[in-house]
Amino acid sequence: MDPITNPYAPGAGTPPRELAGRDKVREQARIAIARICVGNPAKSLLMVGLRGVGKTVLLDKIRQDAVSVGIETIRIEAPEGRSLPGMLVPQLRLALLKLSKIERAKAVAERGLKALAGFAKALKVKFGDIEVGLDFDPEPGLADNGDLQGDLTCLLEQVGEAARSANTALVIFIDELQYVAQPQFAAMISALHRCAQEKLPLTVVGAGLPQLRSLAGQAKSYAERLFDYPAIGPLSVTDAASAIVKPARELNADFTDAAVAALIAQTHGYPYFLQEWGKHSWDIAAATPITESDVMEASRLAIAALDESFFRVRFDRLTPTEKTYMRAMAELGAGPHRSGDIADKLGRSSSSLGPVRSSLITKGMIWSPTYGDTAFTVPLFDELMRRIMPAWNAPAYE
Ligand SMILES: Nc1ncnc2c1ncn2[C@@H]1O[C@H](COP(=O)(O)OP(=O)(O)O)[C@@H](O)[C@H]1O
Ligand SMILES: [Mg+2]
Q1: Ligand 1 in contact with 57 (CB < 6 A)?
Q2: When you count CB atoms within 10 A of the terminal residue's CB, does the N or C end of the chain come out lower?
Q3: Is 272 in the pocket of ligand 1 (CB under 6 A)?
Q4: Contact 55 CB / ligand 1 (< 6 Å)
C-alpha cells in the first residue's frame, strides 16, 4: 500500500499515531501535578522500562497534557557526559524569564534569576559545561556557596516560589535519568525533598532504564518515599491490537484478525517493534485488509531494519570484551541470567567479570533485576547477538 500515507512511526522518541495503553500513567501524572499545583503532597513520577517501550513519547505526552492546563514545563535529556546543572540551568532561566513576565510573579521570578546567576557563577568551576546568559547580578548568599546540593536546593526553592506566585507549577521533565551521575542525582533528590516539605509547586517527571529505581535508592535512602516508579512495559494484547489497527482504520485500511495475532506474536507487544512491523506490513501489502502472510513477509524486513538501527546503535557502542560478555548472555537465552552462569559460559570467575559487567550497566546495556541477576535492557537483544555473532566460541577473552 502507499508508503506515503503509511501511518506507523518506528524511531526513538517518534510519537505514534495511537499512544495505546498509557491512559493510566497519564492520569496518575495529571493527578500528581494537579495536587502539587494546589499545595497538596504528591510523589514525583519516575517511569522505568526497557529500551523501545515508549518512555520518551509518554514523557512528551504527559508534558503536553500539563502544558494544555497552564503548567510551566521544562524538558531535558540527560546525555552521557554532560552535567545535570549544565543541562538544567539554561532551561530554568527560560522558565524564570517567562514567569517574570507575569506581573504578580515578577519580583519573585527576578530573585530566582539572581539565584540562577549565583548558582552558575559558583558552580562553573566544578561543572565546566554550565553556559547561560545572566540577566541579573548574583545576590550574595543566594545559591552561591559552590556546594551543589545546597545551591540546587536554594535555586529550586526560588523557582518553586516563582511558580507559586504565578499560580502555576513548574514540572521538570527529564529523560534518560539513569545517566545522571550519582552525586548530581543525590543533589536533585535532596532539592526536591526540600521543595516537597515546603509544599512548593515544583516537581520532576522522569524516565529511564529499570536500574533507575536502585540508583535513586543508592543516591538517597529516602528516595522510595519521594518517588513513584510506574513500570512501562510491552502492551497487553488488546492495547497492542489498538496500536496497530487504529492508525490503519483512520485511513480506511484494516488488518485481518490473523494478521493482528501474528504481529503481536512477532513483536511480543513491544511498542518499537509494533511500529516497525506495522510499517513494513503496510508497505508490503498489496491491498487492505493486510493479511497474516503480509505480516510474515514483513518480518524479515522489520528484523533487518531493527538490526540496522535500533539494535545496531547499541551494539556498535560495545568494546570487544563487552560483546563477548553479551554474546555469552545471549547463548543462555533471553534472561535474566545468574551472573555465575554467565561466568561459567565464559570459563571465568564472576568476580573477574565485575569490571565488564559494571561498564555494561553504566552504558545502559544490562541491568540487575535482583541481586546476582543480569538482564538485557533492550528487548530481544539476545536474538540480535546470536544473529550478529553467529559463532559462539567460548571464550574469546584475552
Ligand atoms: N503506547 C504506544 N503505542 C504505540 N506505539 C508506541 C507507544 N509508545 C511508544 N510507541 C512507539 O515505540 C517507539 C519507541 O518509543 P520511545 O518513546 O522512543 O521508547 P523508549 O523511550 O522507551 O526507548 C516509537 O516508534 C513510538 O512511536
Ligand atoms: Mg527514550
Answers
A1: yes
A2: C
A3: yes
A4: yes
Residue 3: strand, helix, or coil: coil
Q: Which residues of the chain have pLDDT under 50?
A: 398
**How far apart are the C-alpha atoms of 47 and 243, rounded to whole Å?**
20
pLDDT at residue 160 in the model: 98
Three cell numbers, residue 291: 493479511
Non-local CB neighbours of 243 within 8 Å, separated by 6+ positions = 16, 18, 20, 21, 235, 271, 274, 275, 278
Query: pLDDT (tens digit, 9 = 90+) per residue, 62-81?
Result: 999 999 999 999 999 997 78
- Considering every ligand atom shown, identify the ligand nearest to the alpha carbon of residue 49 and give its number: 1
The Å distance, Cα 380 to ligand 2 centre, comes to: 17
Ligand with minimal distance to 272 CA: 1
Q: How many A from CA of 224 to the centre of ligand 2?
A: 23
Percentage of residues of the chain with pLDDT beyond 90: 91
Nearest CA to ligand 1 atom 8: 54
Q: Where are the alpha helices (DSSP H) in the chain?
A: 23-37, 55-68, 84-100, 106-123, 148-165, 182-197, 212-219, 223-226, 237-249, 257-267, 271-284, 292-308, 310-315, 320-332, 339-346, 354-362, 381-388
Residue 167's CB is within 10 A of a number of other CB atoms, namely: 13
